[in-house]
């Protein structure tokens, strides 16, 4: 498609694209017909039990980014464009991405399926309900809540203390009014009154379990291990104690199959699972990643937000549990983001300001250091915007060269895979080199040491401070022998610190650990820092205000 013919919006570009029948995409990817379960003409689920036994597994390329800003970095767009570029260079590539959550879609993002000519399709359906996976997880989460409250109502044989129930209900929407609620009002026939609350579905432990399980059997076992609260004697109560793990697995069995779609250029993409990276582990499902590794020579995947969140959790949690290592890491950044980290307001980003780029590049520098701390070399994807000046671009590329970092200018939004070929060539060169990947800490280390390692080596902070609540949590965790689990930090995505206003590369800071929540099904300890919340709120002007349908039922304003 020529430059003049390009539509102006992501949605218009997606609507103008000609998709291939999903059966053809599956055939080209080596997926046998009996493993493909059609969800319409352009979507399918994959029954992984009907795939041929893999003789080898593909290499994994992780895409991460600098600390996000309102200016946008385009991480998912680069992920899609890189896979398309690799395919253009003759590589058998496949994408593994998270599913969009309706909360951010209706809130800030407006959509999360790439952008421009580097999108996964059908974009509208992927962003809205997408095969019902997140709804299934919501249903399983709330079915467990109903079982807990019914158990209380029917006599409470397990002696669950209603004041110490830790399990919350869930909704796939940003709704701050549901953070704290009171349930069971209205008399004896309406249940036991108690305080409760809602998490956004993608912060639910069931979402994390869903994304870290390797089979239906493993899924059921992990669900059974989830702690829902404590007895009057302060003993942990699990899903296994309630005996509902079978029912929860039944609710999830179809959703657990990875979803197959395609990019604008026909590259196969598996989109499955969607935990947030600031309050969960931020990676698509192990099922999807391992399925892609089984089918392709190169798997391009992404982890949420910057390397301090999604990438750290990918390497310390997902790769550790999945038994594989990232073979290359791409760090996405933009001139606009670096200028914001250098102190420039969003309204002034269109003006050339090399001094601000120079000041803000310390953020990129820290993300490079973090990736290298895991024994992997990064490639910088400098995602080009039309407002970037050549002077600014040259400064960043020169900085990369001076610091021994591979870098490539990319424009996959405007040119699809063709705009990412230089990046793809750099990635291919890196894939030929050995790396020394290793997680940052040993799970056998004390909890305090593991958290401190993340704060010092990943965030660049001095150390940590535990609130009295966190200290009590830690005593309970150690008493129950749960201290050998990996750490999942819940922290603002905007800063290395726990203060979202400290941009760039802050130093001389400590991280306050507010709570430590054991997630035994997921297999990690969630450390809540600063003011981070597990149920976000909508912004003053939600993206939903721009959304509509036309007279033919087509989406308007989704991106």
From TrEMBL:
SUPFAM superfamilies tied to this protein: P-loop containing nucleoside triphosphate hydrolases
Pathways involved: One-carbon metabolism; tetrahydrofolate interconversion
Top-level taxon: Bacteria
Keyword Transcription regulation belongs to the record: no
Keyword line: ATP-binding, Ligase, Nucleotide-binding, One-carbon metabolism
PROSITE patterns per UniProt: FTHFS_1
Enzyme superclass (EC): ligase
CDD domains reported in the protein's UniProt record: FTHFS
Residues binding ATP: 69-76
GO molecular function annotations of the record: formate-tetrahydrofolate ligase activity
Pfam family, one: FTHFS
Catalytic activity entry: (6S)-5,6,7,8-tetrahydrofolate + formate + ATP = (6R)-10-formyltetrahydrofolate + ADP + phosphate
Keyword Nucleotide-binding: yes
Enzyme Commission identifier(s): 6.3.4.3
Database matches in InterPro entries: Formate_THF_ligase, Formate_THF_ligase_CS, P-loop_NTPase
Stretch forming the signal peptide: none
NCBIfam families per record: PRK13505.1
Family recorded in the similarity comment: Belongs to the formate--tetrahydrofolate ligase family.
Protein name: Formate--tetrahydrofolate ligase
Top-level taxonomy: Bacteria, Bacillati, Bacillota, Bacilli, Bacillales
């Amino acid at each position: 498609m020529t430059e003049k013919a390009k539509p102006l919006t992501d949605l218009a570009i997606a609507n103008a694209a000609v998709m291939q029948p999903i059966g053809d995409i599956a055939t080209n990817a080596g997926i046998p017909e009996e493993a493909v379960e059609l969800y319409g003409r352009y979507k399918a689920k994959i029954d992984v039990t009907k795939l041929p036994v893999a003789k080898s597994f593909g290499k994994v390329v992780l895409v991460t980014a600098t600390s996000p800003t309102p200016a946008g970095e385009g991480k998912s767009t680069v992920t899609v464009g890189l896979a398309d570029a690799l395919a253009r260079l003759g590589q058998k590539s496949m994408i593994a991405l998270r599913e969009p959550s309706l909360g951010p879609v209706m809130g800030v993002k407006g959509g999360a399926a790439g952008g421009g000519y580097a999108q996964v399709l059908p974009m509208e359906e992927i962003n809205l309900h997408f095969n019902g996976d997140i709804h299934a997880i919501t249903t399983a989460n709330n079915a467990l809540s109903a079982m807990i409250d019914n158990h209380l109502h029917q006599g409470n044989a397990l002696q669950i203390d209603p004041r110490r129930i830790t399990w919350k209900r869930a909704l796939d929407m940003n709704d701050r009014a549901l953070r704290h609620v009171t349930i069971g009002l209205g008399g004896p026939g309406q249940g036991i009154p108690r305080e409760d609350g809602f998490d956004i579905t993608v912060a639910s432990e069931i979402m994390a379990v869903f994304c870290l399980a390797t089979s239906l059997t493993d899924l059921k076992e992990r669900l059974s291990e989830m702690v829902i609260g404590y007895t009057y004697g302060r003993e942990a109560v699990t899903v296994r104690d309630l005996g509902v793990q079978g029912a929860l697995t039944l609710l999830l069995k179809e959703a657990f199959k990875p979803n197959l779609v395609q990019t604008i250029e026909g590259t196969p993409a598996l989109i499955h699972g969607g935990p947030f990276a600031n309050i969960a582990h931020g990676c698509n499902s192990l099922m999807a990643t391992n399925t892609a590794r089984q089918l392709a020579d190169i798997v391009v995947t992404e982890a949420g937000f910057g390397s301090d969140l999604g990438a750290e959790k990918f390497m310390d949690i997902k790769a550790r549990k999945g038994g594989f290592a990232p073979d290359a890491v791409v760090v996405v950044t933009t001139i606009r983001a670096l200028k914001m980290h250098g102190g420039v307001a969003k309204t002034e980003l269109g003006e050339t300001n090399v001094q601000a780029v120079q000041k803000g590049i310390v953020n990129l520098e820290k993300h490079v250091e973090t990736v290298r701390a895991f024994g992997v070399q990064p490639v910088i994807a400098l995602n080009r915007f039309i407002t970037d000046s050549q002077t600014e671009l040259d400064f960043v590329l020169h900085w990369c060269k001076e610091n021994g970092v591979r870098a490539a200018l990319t424009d996959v939004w405007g040119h699809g895979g063709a705009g990412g070929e230089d990046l793809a060539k750099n990635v291919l060169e890196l894939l030929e080199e050995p790396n020394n990947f290793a997680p940052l800490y040993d799970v056998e280390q004390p909890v305090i040491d593991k958290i401190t390692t993340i704060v010092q080596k990943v965030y660049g902070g001095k150390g940590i401070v535990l609130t009295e609540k966190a200290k009590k949590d830690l005593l309970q965790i150690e008493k129950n022998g749960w201290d050998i689990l990996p750490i999942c930090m819940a922290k603002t995505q905007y800063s290395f610190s726990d203060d979202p206003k400290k941009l760039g590369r802050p130093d001389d800071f400590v991280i306050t650990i507010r709570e430590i929540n054991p997630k035994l099904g997921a297999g990690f300890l969630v450390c809540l820092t600063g003011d981070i919340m597990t149920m976000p709120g909508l912004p003053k002007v939600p993206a939903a205000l721009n959304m509509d349908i036309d007279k033919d039922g087509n989406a308007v304003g989704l991106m």
